[in-house]
């Protein structure tokens, strides 16, 4: 005799229904533990993926702003050169370019991590060799300086 419960087929020994019940309870407990572990793993994967996506988006935004800044600076330089070459002066237009550049620099500063935060991240990820004290890659197995096992 067998019955289906939660996707598992539980087989009962016809001579001992107690053994069958114990087996059913054990399999359900194992299934619940497995289900809980899978849910925890899935939640961690979703969180990590979200964090990576957000970091990637931030980097893309930062690169776009840096490109915009570079373009505005080149345009300002070309404008000042053309004005000087022709002996003209257009302070209002130059000021407008300078304001645009300042606004883009402000946006870049808002996206970039603070130097203290960047150094704190580096300090957390820095790994040092116990034999020679050299900084090594966190995933290294051996020290590139002395060859000692990490």
TrEMBL record:
InterPro entries, alphabetized: Zinc_ribbon_dom
Highest taxon listed in the record's lineage: Bacteria
Domain Zinc-ribbon: 128-150
Pfam families reported for this sequence: Zn_Ribbon_1 (PF13240)
Name the record gives this protein: Zinc-ribbon domain-containing protein
Taxonomic lineage of the native organism: Bacteria, Bacillati, Bacillota, Clostridia, Eubacteriales
């Amino acid at each position: 005799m067998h019955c289906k419960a939660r996707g598992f087929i539980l087989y009962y020994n016809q001579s001992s229904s107690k053994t069958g019940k114990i087996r059913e309870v054990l399999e359900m407990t194992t299934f619940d533990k497995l289900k809980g572990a899978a849910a925890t793993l899935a939640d961690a994967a979703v969180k990590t993926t979200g964090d990576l996506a957000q970091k990637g988006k931030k980097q893309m935004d930062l690169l776009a702003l840096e490109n915009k800044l570079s373009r505005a600076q080149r345009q300002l330089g070309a404008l000042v050169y053309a004005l000087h070459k022709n002996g003209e002066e257009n302070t209002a237009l130059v000021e407008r370019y300078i304001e645009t550049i300042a606004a883009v620099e402000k946006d870049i500063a808002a996206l970039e991590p603070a130097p203290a935060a960047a150094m704190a991240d580096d300090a957390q990820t820095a790994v040092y060799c116990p034999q020679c004290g050299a900084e090594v890659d966190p995933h290294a197995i051996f020290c590139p300086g002395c060859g000692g096992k990490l």
